[in-house]
Amino acid sequence: MQYLSNKKAHGWGIKLWVLSDSIIGYTHHINVNKGRRNERHSPNGQMEPRFYKDHHVTYDSFFTSPALVYYLLDKGTRSTGTVIKTRKGMPSNFKTTPIQKGEIRVKITDYNRFPTVRI
């Protein structure tokens, strides 16, 4: 168990790192985070053996940043994630442009290297 301070409803939880097939749902690899700092839970840790293998990584707002998207893309790995509009490195118009519930906006920057969908 690990304490997750950003979870308002409950502060305790288990993090699972899962590599699975998105079409048939087959799980190739599971790693349970035990909360130890020396574990390899970073793009260079869990992902390193999987670079350049046509994987598409999906993650939540805890990880999403332009720097990570560019890093993975440079390693031949596509990615999708929800965004926090105030995250460091996000385009400035993400911070100021209001969006209505249910509205979808697409922002493509840097010659299509960083496609972003806001929902």
Walkthrough of the structure:
This is PiggyBac transposable element-derived protein domain-containing protein. Residues 2-108 form the PiggyBac transposable element-derived protein domain. InterPro entries: PGBD (IPR029526). The protein is an alpha+beta fold. The protein folds into two domains: 1-40, no CATH class; 42-119, no CATH class. Helix content is 12%, strand content 29%. The chain has helices spanning 66-74, 92-96, and strands spanning 2-3, 12-13, 15-20, 27-33, 56-59, 78-81, 105-109, 114-118. The strands form four sheets. It has a two-stranded antiparallel sheet. A two-stranded antiparallel ribbon has the order 3-4. It has a two-stranded parallel sheet with strand order 5-6. The chain starts with a strand and ends with a strand. The relative contact order is 0.11. The mean pLDDT is 70.
Quick summary:
The protein has two helices and eight strands. The model has no long low-confidence stretch (mean pLDDT 70).
**Arithmetic mean of pLDDT:** 70
Whole-number total of structural domains: 2
Q: Going across the major beta sheet, what is the strand order?
A: 1-2
The topology string of helices and strands comes to EEEEEHEHEE
CA-atom Rg in angstroms? 16 Å
